[in-house]
Amino acid sequence: MGETSAVIFDIEKFAVHDGPGIRTVVFLKGCPLRCVWCHNPESQSAAPEILFDDAKCTRCGRCAALCPKHCHAVAAELHTFRRSGCTACGLCTKHCPADALKPVGREMTVDEVMAEVLKDQVFYRNSGGGVTLSGGEPLAHFAFSAALLKAAKEAGLHTAVETCGFAPWERLRALLPLTDLWLWDVKAAPEKHEVLTGVPAESILENLRQLDRAGAATVLRCPLVPGINDEAAALQHIAALANGLEHIRRIDLEPYHPLGESKSRNLGRTGVFHADFASEADKKRWRKTISALTRIPVHL
Prior knowledge:
This protein has 300 residues and is α/β, with parallel strands linked by helices. It is built from 11 helices and 13 strands. A 9-stranded mixed β-sheet has the order 7-1-2-8-9-10-11-12-13. β11 (218-224), α9 and β12 form a beta-alpha-beta unit. α3 (110-117) packs across α5 (142-154) and α9 packs across α11 (280-291). The longest helix is centred in the middle third of the chain and has 13 residues, at 142-154. It is globular and about 60 Å long. The relative contact order is 0.15.
């Protein structure tokens, strides 16, 4: 089907929050959005990367001695990692005794991914679970995602796709017969969407409506960040969007957590976003506001 391999940055086993039953979640690397709060910043670039945790580094110098591009320079109290020359070959990560250097992403074929997925087939069968494609953005790797979903369906597995929805409609339409459930990210109210994610909301919303007209089952997944995208208009937008969908199953509210902050720093990013954890009062307000405007079940 064309792209039979893609860069995968994680395969999560025994997942229970990404579709029905016990599931395996395949995380594809590469995303067209740049959400300011992204908790998986390693998913943004489609290329393999290296995480460097300076707090763990013992300054042993092995990485500097091994790196073929001379990207590491280690002195008594300073480890400099020159990322501009790094090809993410991973040699430094294999010989770091402190686990301060870690590879993120490796190219895998559909067959290699399916071999991992099928190891837990008995759990899917007993729980009604299956495989979920996430990311990053699965639709950014359309041919690979289509081939992987096709293989999963041929194996008798339930399939789900978590997506931001920013892709040509033709890609979603082609995946309709291969996808049992769509986990659809709702990032922000339309008027703030481009500022917070880097892309406008119009085509995303139209894709969702077309999916619904085609009879696709959906769950709205709504990351909410206190003071950023949880204003009244945003909560009203979520409820109104759900009310306009005939085949929606539920609304999942996903409170912000700062896991992405340390990962952003370890990827060498500057201007790292920070926000506080959502309070119980925040969560109560979100759920109360949305539930008052829709009969669709709201989960936290």
